[in-house]
Amino acid sequence: MTKFAGRAAIVTGGAAGIGGATARLLAEQGASVLIADINLAAAEANAENIRGAGNVAEAIAADVASHDDIAAMVQSAVERWGRLDILVNNAYSPTYEADGDALSVSERAWDAGMATLVKAHFLATKYAVPHMRASGGGSIVNISSVHGLLMAPRKLIYEAGKSAVIGITKQMAIDFGPDGVRVNAICPGHIVTERQQERWDENPSGLRYFEDQYPLRRTGLPSDIANAVAFLCSDEASFITGHALVVDGGLTIQLQEDFSVRQVRYIQENPDTQLPY
Predict the structure, then answer these.
(1) Which of 1, 46, 146, 271 has the highest local Cβ count within 10 Å?
(2) Helices 17-28 and 194-202, packing angle to 10 deg
(3) Cβ of 131: how many Cβ atoms within 10 Å?
(4) What CATH number is given to the structural domain containing 242?
(5) Is 211 part of a structural domain of the chain?
(6) Could you give the CA distance from residue 119 to residue 111 in angstroms, rounded to a whole number?
(7) Which residue in 96, 158, 209, 214 is the catalytic one?
(8) For the segment 58-84, what is each residue's pLDDT rounded down to a tens digit?
(9) Binning pLDDT at 50, 70 and 90, where does residue 93 land?
């Protein structure tokens, strides 16, 4: 497929998981892809897989909490391919004490969380848009979450950050629409990445419990989100901007009263279930 032939893309957190699948799909569809990840060895491995399939990809070490790394990331893509058309802001590293409420979360944890969840998207866009303007337009996709729409207890940092991603997406869509730059967000449900699969291998009954919570009776795969990203970046989505696309297998459309009753029945019928939390 050559849907993105001649276009250059950056995928942050592109070594594995959602970012890894997105990098592979964009490359399969013709884009030259720069994989930016804090784990350079893993990023290089994914880039090598892409090149092995006959497509174009390079890797760069980037900590999205670092202003200098983000600036260098964008500059690297432009120097390699002379343009930038697609930016996927996906990277997120929960290396801080993320859980807690406003009483228990430390200021250090808050600042670290906002740096990767929100500030990184702002800075990457800041450096990317001038190059997109020069190419006549582009597409930015910010990865939010169903946690940006519905709140969970003691998840102040993550919920605030993912909510903010939806807000800045809408604002950026207004600001850069006249330049032909479209900005959208994706709100995934539970996606079984390579890291998550390790967790579920240790607790298969917990995964079955999660799957039963979805109207489609399955959780998501990285490819489900990659497909959505590719659509939003494509010409088929040329009239879509400022939108938060929910890709969650129907998780968030359920009436909570009925849903909670069904979950109680599930546990009664499956008493050996090991709950994931």
Answers:
(1) 46
(2) 130
(3) 19
(4) 3.40.50.720
(5) yes
(6) 10
(7) 158
(8) 999 999 999 999 999 999 999 999 999
(9) confident
Which burial class, exposed, middle or buried, applies to 32 when counting CB atoms under 10 A from its CB (0-12, 13-18, 19+)? buried
Are 4 and 231 in contact, with CB atoms under 8 Å apart?
no
Assess whether 158 carries a catalytic annotation.
yes
As a whole number of angstroms, the distance between CA 68 and CA 49 comes to: 28
Domain count, the chain: 1
Residue 57 has a pLDDT of: 98
Domain extent at residue 216: 8-269
- State percent of the chain over pLDDT 70: 98
Pairing of strands 8-12, 56-61: unpaired
CA distance 96 to 28: 35
Q: In what order do the strands lie in the sheet with 244-247?
A: 56-61, 32-37, 8-12, 86-89, 138-143, 181-188, 244-247
Cα distance between residue 243 and residue 20, in whole Å: 23
pLDDT score at 97: 61
CA distance 3 to 65: 32
In this structure, what DSSP letter does residue 31 have? Answer: -
Exposure string over 209-230, b if 16+ CB within 10 A, otherwise e: bbbbbbeeeebbebebbbebbb
Cβ atoms 31, 57 nearer than 8 A = no
Helical pair 40-52 and 17-28, crossing angle rounded to 10 deg: 30
Whether 3 maps to a domain, the answer reads no
Identify whether 154 is part of a domain: yes
C-alpha of 209 from chain center: 24
Cα separation of 190 and 104, whole Å? 26
